[in-house]
Amino acid sequence: MNSYLQVQNLTRRVGDKTLFSDLCFSIGEGQKVGLIAKNGTGKSTLLNILGGTDQADEGQVVYRNGLRVGYLEQTPNYPLDLTVIEACFWHGNETTNLIREYETCMASESQEGLQSILDRMEVFKAWDYETRAKTILSQLFITEFDKPLAQLSGGQLKRVALANTLIMEPDLLILDEPTNHLDLQMIEWLENYLSRSNMTLLMVTHDRYFLDRICSVILEMDDETIYTYHGNYAYYLEQRAQRLEVARAEVARATNLYRTELEWMRRMPQARGHKARYREEAFYELEKRAHRHLEEQQVKLETKSTYIGSKIFEAEYVSKAFGDRIILKDFYYNFSRYEKLGIVGANGTGKSTFVKMLLGLVKPDSGRFIIGETVRFGYYSQDGMQFDEQMKVIDAVRKTAEYIDLGGGRRLSAMQFLQHFMFSPLQQQNYIYKLSGGEKRRLYLCTVLMQSPNFLVLDEPTNDLDIPSLQILEQYLHDFRGCVIIVSHDRYFMDKVVDHLFVFNGNGDVKDFPGNYTQYRSLTPDPSPRRGESSQKTQNNQKTQNNQNIQNASNTQRERKRKLSFREKQEFEALGKEIDQLEQEKADIEAALSSGTLSTQEIIDMSKRLPVVNELLDEKSMRWLELSEIE
């Protein structure tokens, strides 16, 4: 395998904090590599160094000669007065630089070196660069090529930046959180594109389905170093559990030996011979190993939510439009106690607007929301994070509450609560401006949850959160005794948390689907546009097909309606209990596989059992749905 990239002894510090030290790894031709690490450990900094926008303190990055590298930054930055197509020429790359060189040469009197430029134009396929740009933009549903960037949403701007990177047809593609701000349709398009491509890839993403389906190598940054796993995300979880088990055993052995050596140190006189000094030096190295902290989060956070009555909210024939763009049209829904609802749909279909109308932040054009008297909202929004950057982390949380009520006379201090969300006592004394983007998001989430709401409304809570944070949030929401509405493009997260969906199809069309996202997608066709088809035509065909599928399913259900027989009633009741048991078993297995406490044999056994449980759940849930439609 040809080596595309060699990272040699890379070290980076920020102030007195070491992000990583002596990192060494390589990426070979054709490999698709996922980089995993907790927020604040330097993932984006490492990618910036590899992408050439930052520098390491020590070490070097060596690319193969002539390698084309494309880099999608986490937050793309363009002059907003550019148009969409101009943005594709704005970031300098070999092809766009060559096009500028050609234009400069043609404008000169001598046109010196023109033949060499023409030859290179052929090699780099520069003549059809604009055509390629428009083709990829169209596949990403960006068709207004002369539209100013200032008029684009965050998701549209991310798609323009993605197109800009893909147009280059790089040998090595580096992506920093490519799914952030993309809707589900675009995430699945990109997933299919990268899976089929022969392009070599290095990416950071918190989307675990995306990671699992694309990457064949996982790099984990932990404890200022890096670990390599040759397999997908599921394989990484298994091997990481084994690594931590071995590391814990090593720390335990070092701790026992440290106690013995500590006694020797205390007994020895100050004047020591050469051998004693050697042993003393070894003692301090042993002390480091014994005090090594394996930061593996295994908490189950339960907070007391305030009482919520049986009346939650009722949407009474709500309509809302912005000009010609219809968000809701005579929408009616009665929300039930303890519902956990996911909202999905393309960007611009009105998901966030619906949430803001529910919270009273946006007024409907007609109709109304009737909110129960006991409802106490906790709202996490995409743009609601506001902190005094000069405050310390602990002070920002104490400003919300000094203590968090767990119920039953138990409570947590603000410091203890922050530790549940992986803020160490040392990090709690940091100023907020020193936190990474993901750490700030995690802090914002803490301030929302600690207010003891009974109705959580979370708008894109997974953006910028690392995987350990997502696992803690998933467990919290699973145990939450209240109502939940989540707007998210994270399919794995939605599958873990919600029990039914609102699907926003645009033009005021909102469908209520009784299941999670994977179940919904299994009943809808692939949304990826075909090469050569216009994106608008594909989108319209997709909507027509989706509506036809739903209508056919509804007709089938209506045709089946009849009375349940005595035996069917017994089967229906038994299925409910079996499904509950299987869901609990599934949750227990997933929690155990993520815990890092299993032996190798336990991991193997549970990995074999999980697909069996999933298959049984699908089978019994489908049968339960069939019987539930019979009167």
| Name of the CATH class of the largest domain | Alpha Beta
CATH topology of the largest domain: Rossmann fold
Please report the distance between the alpha carbons of the first and last residues.
Answer: 63 Å
Q: CATH superfamily of the largest domain, please?
A: P-loop containing nucleotide triphosphate hydrolases
* Main pleated-sheet profile: 6 strands, mixed
Strand content: 15-25%
- State the strand order across the main sheet: 5-6-7-3-8-9
Which overall shape is indicated by the principal axes computed on the Cα atoms?
Answer: globular
CATH architecture of the largest domain: 3-Layer(aba) Sandwich
Q: Can you walk through the features of this model?
A:
With 631 residues, this protein is of the alpha/beta class. Helices cover 45% and strands 20% of the residues. It contains 21 helices and 20 strands. It has a six-stranded mixed β-sheet with strand order 5-6-7-3-8-9, with helices on both faces. Strands 14-17-18-12-19-20 form a six-stranded mixed β-sheet, with helices on both faces. A hairpin with a 2-residue loop joins strand 8 and strand 9. The radius of gyration is 28 Å and the shape is globular. Residues 271-275, 294-299 and 527-561 have low confidence and may be disordered.
